[in-house]
Amino acid sequence: MIVKNTLLPAAPVADEARPYRYTTPQYRQMHDLGFFDGVRHEFIGGEVIEMPSQSNEHYGTIEEVRDVMIALFGPNYWVRMQATLDLSPHSLPDPDIAVVAGPPARKAKTNPTTALLVIEVSDSRLWYDRSTKASLYAAAGIADYWIVNVPGRQIEIRRDPQPDATQEFGHGYATLTTLKQGATASPLALPGAAVPVDRLFV
User: Fold this and answer.
1) Confidence of residue 10 (pLDDT cuts 50, 70, 90)
2) Do 175 and 144 form a contact (C-beta atoms < 8 A)?
3) What is the rounded distance in angstroms from the CA atom of residue 119 to the CA atom of residue 129?
4) CATH 3.90.1570.10 location in the chain
5) 163: preceding bond cis by omega (within 30 degrees)
6) What is the pTM of this model?
7) Among residues 32, 122, 142, 147, which one has the fewest Cβ atoms lying within 10 Å of its Cβ?
8) From CA 27, how far away is CA 31, in angstroms rounded?
9) Is residue 150 a contact partner of residue 58, using CB atoms and an 8 Å limit?
10) Which fold has domain 56-200?
11) Among 106, 110, 128, 166, which residue's Cα sits nearest to residue 49?
């Protein structure tokens, strides 16, 4: 999907051609005018990214992970499923699962700006979640980022966000732990808890 900037002034001419990156207010303006009606998408790095359709296995796994996290964290945390995090000025991702501190704030007018744990359930977009999404979440200071790798039947846990000029958003994760079926995982926010890897897959 290509979105042309018809509402706002064009970007200044530079020595090299480069994409025009929208800010969050600019994106919201276009969204409110119906530019993306009927299109499943995310706003990442100033660009509108069209999302592929989901297989039943993919969505079922997301539901499974959500149910496990709700039972694990309890009522003092908000387990959000495919809901927006406000990582302004250029990103409004909709992670498959985000665990936010505090009970659900459904009447709040603004979206959360951080999360204790972000989980992406990944199959056809595994490369994207390992690269672009990982760098984005690291740049936002998300300390605990999990990828539920559907084809590999394993969990990839990324932690210790730090600056990394080689990554898309200038940050990356220093540690990666891969856990296969039969192992257990513990969120940073609940170090005493143990989640069986097998329990996260349908």
Assistant:
1) low
2) no
3) 10
4) 56-200
5) no
6) 0.88
7) 32
8) 6
9) yes
10) tt1808, chain A (3.90.1570)
11) 128
